[in-house]
Design goal:
Blueprint lengths: L1 H13 L10 H7 L8 E6 L3 E8 L6 E5 L10 H4 L2 H6 L1 E6 L7 E2 L6 H4 L2 H8 L12 E6 L2 H11 L4 E7 L20 H4 L4 H24 L6 E6 L8 H9 L5 E6 L6 H4 L1 H15 L4 H8 L4
């Protein structure tokens, strides 16, 4: 019984990947007290989904699309959204993936497997780019389970994507990690005691390898440059994922970093490094339009 209780406790913490601790609406409002830059929220609706998007920055700035893992929510990127340099240089588009947070999948004839698929998620999330009016290609960042979705987004709308960041990516179908208690998360009785987001994350975890194999043909279609960052201390994602990325991107413009002191949540623990990488990419990607960017951000004054 003790082993069962320990497993249930660990399951609530570890299903999929660690998320930022949940925040109530009151805590979010408190976080933004005294801050000049605050997000604007949108819901993009169609026949299949209601996609919740938090945006920060003028829509005339280049778009930075951020995709979370499993489970996750928009405020999991709160530290990045609070970065003043990113605020000045981008319109940040932070989605809540369909099924998570305030994003909802409409009732349809599609099975859960289809609605939680990489392809379905990517097609829904790509619509967030319609909120940007800069005419510039987007930088897309996907972390953990969001990384393969970012790959699919880049192949769906290649003309709209300028660079792809895969952070702590869960992309190798042969390296999906499971623990001795993982199977308990599939039991209906256990699921009654877990949040909806964790139950969805468990479903994704057991479906993930199959989904990643379905993604394999799309790697060769990638056109934008790719940056892959992995933590050497990441115990949730096998380091073999970095080697997998090198194989899939062998003949493409790509760079790879293994951070010796980093765990899984690199966008939080190494937020400054992530910001530097993104801004360095922007310097190259948008160099012909840099004066306009500076005018919008106020840095050119």
């Amino acid at each position: 019984m003790q082993r069962w209780l320990i497993g249930l406790f660990l399951l609530t913490l570890m299903t999929g990947c660690f998320r930022r601790f949940s925040m109530t609406e009151r805590e979010i409002r408190r976080h933004y007290v005294g801050k000049k830059a605050r997000p604007t929220f949108y819901t993009i609706e169609d026949d299949s989904t209601k996609l919740f998007v938090a945006t920060l920055g003028a829509d005339t700035l280049p778009p930075l699309l951020l995709i979370h893992g499993a489970p996750g929510n928009w405020y999991g990127y709160l530290r990045n959204m609070d970065d003043t340099l990113l605020q000045q240089r981008f319109q940040m588009l932070v989605v809540e993936r369909p099924g998570y947070g305030k994003s909802r999948q409409r009732r349809s004839k599609l099975r859960l497997r289809s609605r939680m698929s990489i392809d379905f998620q990517a097609r829904s999330i790509a619509k967030a780019l319609s909120l940007n009016h800069s005419g510039q290609p987007a930088i897309v960042l996907g972390r953990s389970y969001g990384a393969p979705i970012a790959v699919r987004v880049a192949t769906l709308v290649p003309e709209k994507i300028g660079h792809l960041f895969l952070i702590s990516p869960a992309i190798d179908p042969d390296k999906e990690k499971f623990w001795w208690f993982s199977k308990w998360g599939r039991m209906p009785f256990v699921q009654l005691f877990l949040p909806r987001s964790l139950n969805l994350a468990t479903y994704e975890k057991y479906e993930h390898a199959r989904q990643l194999r379905g993604l394999l043909p799309y790697w060769s279609q990638l056109k934008p440059p790719v940056t892959v960052v992995q933590g050497a201390q990441d115990w949730l994602i096998d380091q073999g994922n970095l080697a997998f990325a090198k194989r899939m991107l062998a003949n493409k413009p790509a760079s790879f970093q293994l951070l010796p002191d980093a765990g899984h949540l690199i966008t939080n623990s190494h937020a400054s490094l992530v910001c530097s990488l993104i801004c360095h990419t922007a310097d190259s990607l948008y160099h012909t339009r840099l004066p306009n960017m500076l005018e919008h951000s106020g840095e050119g004054k």
